[in-house]
């Protein structure tokens, strides 16, 4: 997220302890993205008596910023911060601990994965959520391949979590990271029966991404019948590109619009893609 720098550090630094989370994070973003104070100074904040300042210091140490004037490339502002963040994980304040965990995950250092994966068993659901959220963006076919099987085991476990948000992001991470295995496919099928519509949606999109054509008739039924539609149903239909889904997609889109949902950006592209695919199939037959 880009933030235009309009305030000096002397004004922003006290805001790191503001009780309003939005104010606090906006100040931290400006510091991380625009001011980029010396690493040693941020580490001092990370050892402050104030847990709010320590939390923001960890956030800053995991942030990236533009590296060029054209704003086309980003890089971690403090790539040397991993050892310090590992120490911050021992903080007695759970919000600080979570901030450090997410910052550590942003650094994508493969040797920190055992630590990150270990938080999947934490009693606090917010820390389990951080694990589920972060695992969807690692390079599991490259530098992190040795931890791929463990990451799959952890995500499948988190898909059974008692917390809806944890299950939702674990399901998302499975397909976003392209962790396509017999085990994850089977778990995505099971997730179609989840009580949370967001989880069901991510499972649908995952099966579509993995090209499981046996899911197409089930998706069609879900578009027609599911009382709580998910935007991911539409994205799954677009992923398959099967024009046979078009009537169900149109009917589902009419229901979605009638219910007054603000988010509608996915409807037109899905209908357009299915119609174009239908025309293409028809032309091939002529």
List the helices and strands and how they pair.
Elements (H helix, E strand, L loop, with lengths): L8 H4 L8 H15 L3 H7 L5 H11 L2 E3 L7 E3 L5 H7 L5 H14 L5 H6 L6 H10 L13 H11 L5 H13 L5 H10 L5 H13 L6 H10 L5 H10 L5 H13 L8 H19 L1
Helix pairs in contact: 2-4, 3-4, 4-6, 5-6, 6-8, 8-10, 9-10, 10-12, 11-12, 12-14, 13-14, 13-15, 14-16, 15-16
Radius of gyration over C-alpha positions, nearest whole angstrom: 22 Å
| CATH C-level category of the largest domain | Mainly Alpha
Helical coverage, percent range: 55-70%
**Number of helices, counting only DSSP H or I runs of 4 residues or more:** 16
Q: And the CATH topology of the largest domain?
A: Leucine-rich Repeat Variant
Residues in β-strands, percent = under 5%
User: By helix and strand content, what is the structural category?
Assistant: mainly alpha
Q: State the major sheet.
A: 2 strands, antiparallel
CATH architecture of the largest domain: Alpha Horseshoe
Q: In terms of per-residue confidence, which ranges show pLDDT below 50 for 5 or more consecutive residues?
A: none
- Kindly, what is the distance between the CA atoms of the first and last residues, rounded to a whole number of angstroms? 49 Å
Number of domains: 3
Shape: globular
H/E topology pattern:
HHHHEEHHHHHHHHHHHH
Side by side, the strands of the main sheet go: 1-2
- Average pLDDT over all residues: 94
Secondary structure: number of strands: 2
Descriptive tags:
286 residues, single chain, Leucine-rich Repeat Variant, 3 domains, mainly alpha
């Amino acid at each position: 997220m880009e933030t235009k720098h309009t305030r000096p550090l002397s004004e922003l630094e006290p805001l790191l302890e503001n009780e309003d989370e939005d104010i606090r994070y906006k100040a931290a973003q400006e510091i991380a993205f625009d001011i980029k104070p010396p690493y040693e100074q941020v580490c001092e904040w990370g050892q402050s008596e104030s847990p709010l300042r320590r939390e923001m210091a960890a956030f800053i140490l995991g942030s990236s910023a533009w590296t060029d004037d054209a704003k086309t490339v980003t890089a971690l502002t403090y790539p040397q911060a991993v050892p310090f963040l590992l120490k911050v994980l021992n903080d007695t304040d759970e919000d600080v601990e979570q901030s450090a965990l997410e910052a550590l995950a942003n650094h994508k250092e493969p040797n920190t994965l055992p630590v990150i994966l270990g938080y999947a068993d934490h009693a606090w659901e917010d820390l389990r959520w951080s694990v589920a959220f972060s695992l969807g963006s690692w390079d599991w076919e490259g530098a992190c391949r040795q931890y791929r099987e463990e990451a799959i085991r952890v995500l499948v476990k988190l898909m059974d979590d008692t917390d809806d948000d944890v299950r939702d992001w674990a399901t998302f991470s499975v397909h976003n990271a392209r962790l396509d295995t017999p085990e994850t496919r089977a778990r995505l099928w099971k997730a179609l029966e989840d009580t949370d519509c967001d989880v069901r949606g991510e499972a649908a999109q995952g099966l579509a991404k993995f090209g499981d054509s046996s899911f197409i008739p089930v998706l069609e039924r879900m578009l027609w019948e599911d009382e709580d539609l998910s935007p991911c149903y539409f994205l799954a239909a677009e992923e398959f590109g099967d024009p046979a889904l078009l009537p169900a997609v149109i009917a589902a889109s009419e229901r979605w619009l009638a219910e007054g949902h603000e988010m509608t950006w996915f409807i037109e592209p899905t209908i357009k893609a299915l119609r174009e695919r239908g025309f293409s199939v028809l032309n091939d037959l002529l």
